[in-house]
Amino acid sequence: MKPSGETFLVNVEAENAFPWTGNSEVASPHGLANWIAETSGACGPFERLTFAYLTWLNVIVLVCHRSIAHPLRHLLIQSTIALGLALLANASTKSQSRLLHFARHWYPLPLYIFFFEELQGLVHAIFPAWFDSRLIIFDHSLFGVHPSVWLAQFANPALNDCMQSAYMTYFLYLVVLPIILYVKRDYISFWTVMLSTALAHYSVYVIAILFPVESPYFSLASLNTSRLNGGHATSLIELIEHFGRVHGAAFPSAHVAGSMVAILASWRYRRWLFWICLPFFISMSVATVYGRYHYAADVFAGLAVGTFGFLAGTKWMENRSAGPDRRRVQM
After folding, report:
1. What's the pTM value of the predicted model, to 2 decimals?
2. What is the 3-state secondary structure (H, E, C) of the chain?
3. pLDDT for residue 95 is more than 80
């Protein structure tokens, strides 16, 4: 990748790309202090936000370790992730390796998935009970029915497959616009989207621990007695859910929050993409309830959290771009 004025990448000799390997200065106190200072300067808003989230998780694990299975494993994994991000940030500022630069831009995507899966063991760290009853009451008060149960009357294999396909479009929202911005080397916009998406997702994960909700799939199982049978899309989502379903973390909907960021960012950066994605976004939001993954309340909360993430992320990047270090806007 050719460095430009939009990025903070620095041209250096290849042998200096990895200062923590085979460099005796790093082992000395002075060298370590310099490395820490360099790494701090190399970290952008995304890393700083992620470090804050990891710190919050570690505090939760330390304080509530009696309520968490394998707390030491959580601490080790989270600390390893933090160290890995620091090493990557430091290395990518000094290297012209395309692989390193690619990793620096795209590592956020697997992080979202990992942190979501990690909630499986953390949702009851603070509160041992589920709070679904409150959302069930909210939904029923608003609609007069349980939405996921009411929608079951329309279920048929073709519609089930359509809804499950719409549900999976969430993964496309995470990558389509970033790919377009990355290919165009619009790194400020790229990292605005990535940072906004992180703010939305991390907010969802924090709320999921503070307000554990298990979803209609579990809480309304006695009412949702009919199976949502379908074709290939249904089989695929069942396979994914078999290995990746998290019992909890339903409120707010991470699908809706992350996709809301993508929709708002598309409106700002690629208006034509917004109009293409809008009907799929609406379908996906309905599918989260139809598929019994979420309450309607989860969807509304996801819309709010996604909007917050986009507005806060955009403001953060605008302030950084306007500051004295505006050349270092790519993280």
Report:
1. 0.86
2. CCCCCCCCCCCCCHHHCCCCCCCHHHHCHHHHHHHHHHHHHHCCHHHHHHHHHHHHHHHHHHHCHHHCCCHHHHHHHHHHHHHHHHHHHHHHHHCCCHHHHHHHHHCHHHHHHHHHHHHHHCCCCCCCCCCHHHHHHHHHHHHCCCHHHHHHHHCCHHHHHHHHHHHHCHHHHCCHHHHHHHHCCCHHHHHHHHHHHHHHHHHHHHHHHHCCCCCHHHHCCCCCCCCCCCCHHHHHHHHHHHHHCCCCCCCCCHHHHHHHHHHHHHHHHCHHHHHHHHHHHHHHHHHHHHCCCCCHHHHHHHHHHHHHHHHHHHHHHHHHHHCCCHHHCCC
3. yes
